[in-house]
Design brief:
This protein is mainly beta. Helix content is 12%, strand content 32%.
Length: 456
């Protein structure tokens, strides 16, 4: 994802809330059916599918007790004098998915609510698709097609309903890092192209050392260590704007970082490409394609198809193009074409598109510097984990998705305008206060050979 995500982390008040989702709270993964397709009309249901909540949202407390290891946005210095001791002393707990986090499933549909009011307020969530109770589903995407339905009619400016792939370990990291006892069952092992340093446990060790509480987010902070990996943003969107974006890294698989490898001082000095090569129809000059009442009408549900085309049209090839198709009300809608002076009418993500975009917009070509589609291809061949989330943005207020960005830039300059939202619209306090009932619904997930998951 483009900015560094401000993850919401819980600290539950001792015994009272511990009884709600404490050590007696069993971890039961909500079921979510999805389909594998081999040809049009030939799809088989994966009825054993389920989702798991990311570990960063969970209550972290002393082993066998109810004392918080993490309260608000700070660690307990007694339980956590250093990262290894903290990991020995502290545990993550089971989750009340619906009651505390606003996460529900029904058949093939997953609903993620933005704000949930229980005994305390929860903001957003992030979940992963499971293969079984202790492993994430791993998707090998080369020369394949990934399709889902989405309803984001209740998702306004400043909020992101995201669906993407991360090069995480399928077991959550337990085989590589024996100190990690929780594993995929409890949503561990997250990484992305921002090399996020707000992850509470990385490689089985608490990220408590050097932890600095966030000045704007009462639940988050950053430690000395980040967690990096290749990321394919299939869908970052609200009802106003949408983008799909590959983010390559120069490392293979989930990799921890410290210092400038995490791009602390300079955005482009890290192990991964933070900006990616994005295709946002509005940013690419077509301002009437996506939105309420437009060609892709976000006031109702629609289907998103993404095709990962290789140079030899086989699963053994190298990723050469990422194509997008929409289906709504029985009508197949081809992706919009670039309408920017000086650029060809591209309608997909290719190396030529990315190079042309970076040159025309005057952006640093960090995408190619980190290996471009070739490095993304390696991650897809190995397998990537499906992530679905809803979140607001304490780092850049989601302006990079749905408004004019960077702040202060001339909105008439190519690449600056990304949507119609006001630059004041993404303030988290405002968004959380004014639109707590926002939600996104992902449903009818299908995966298979190109052309097999939808009807033209």
């Amino acid at each position: 994802m483009f900015p560094k995500i401000s993850l919401i982390t819980f600290s539950l008040v001792a015994v009272a809330l511990g009884q709600q989702i404490g050590t007696n709270q069993a971890e039961t993964h909500p079921k979510l059916t999805w389909q594998t397709c081999t040809g049009t009309g030939s799809c088989q249901a994966n009825s054993n599918g389920a989702v798991v909540l990311d570990a960063n949202w969970r209550w972290t407390h002393n082993v066998g007790g109810f004392t918080n290891c993490y309260t608000g946005n700070t660690w307990d210095n007694t339980l956590c004098p250093d990262g290894e001791t903290c990991a020995t002393n502290c545990a993550v707990d089971g989750a009340d998915y619906a009651g505390t986090y606003g996460i529900t499933t029904s058949g093939n549909a997953l609903t993620l609510k933005f704000v949930t009011f229980a005994q305390q307020k929860n903001i957003g969530s992030r979940v992963y698709l499971m293969a079984d109770d202790t492993h994430y589903e791993s998707f090998q995407l080369l020369n394949k097609e990934f399709t889902f339905d989405v309803d984001l009619s209740q998702l306004p400016c400043g909020i992101n309903g995201a669906l993407y792939f991360s090069e995480m370990d399928a077991d959550g990291g337990v085989s590589r890092f024996p100190a990690n006892k929780a594993g995929a069952k409890y949503g561990t092992g997250y990484c992305d192209s921002q090399c996020p340093r707000d992850i509470k446990f990385i490689n089985g060790v608490a990220n408590s050392e050097g932890w600095v509480p966030s000045p704007s987010d009462p639940n988050a902070g950053t430690g000395n260590t980040g967690s990096c990996c290749n990321e394919m943003d299939v869908w970052e969107a609200n009802s106003v704007s949408a983008a799909f974006t590959p983010h390559p890294c120069s490392v293979d698989g989930q990799t921890s970082c410290t210092g400038e490898d995490c791009a602390i001082q300079s955005r482009f000095d890290g192990l991964c490409d933070p900006d990616g090569c994005d295709f946002n129809s509005f940013r690419m000059g077509v301002q009437d394609f996506y939105g309420k009442g437009m060609t892709v009408d976000t006031s109702s549900k629609f289907t998103v198809v993404t095709q990962f085309v290789t140079n030899n049209n086989s699963t053994s090839g190298t990723l050469s193009e990422i194509r997008r198709i929409y289906v709504q009300n029985g009508r197949v809608i081809q992706n919009s074409k670039v309408n920017i002076p000086g650029m060809q009418p591209f309608d997909s993500v290719t190396t030529d598109f990315c190079t042309s975009q970076k040159t025309t917009f005057g952006d640093t070509n960090s995408f190619q510097q980190h290996g471009g589609l070739a490095n993304m291809s390696k991650a897809m061949a190995k397998g990537m984990v499906l992530v679905m989330s809803i979140w607001d943005d304490h780092a850049a207020q989601m302006l990079w998705l749905d408004s004019d960005y960077p702040i202060g830039a001339d909105a008439t300059k190519p690449g600056v305008a990304r949507g119609t939202c006001a630059q004041s619209s993404g303030d988290p306090v405002t968004v959380e206060g004014q639109t707590p009932n926002a939600q996104v619904v992902f449903s009818n997930i299908r995966f298979g050979s190109i052309g097999s998951t939808f009807t033209a």
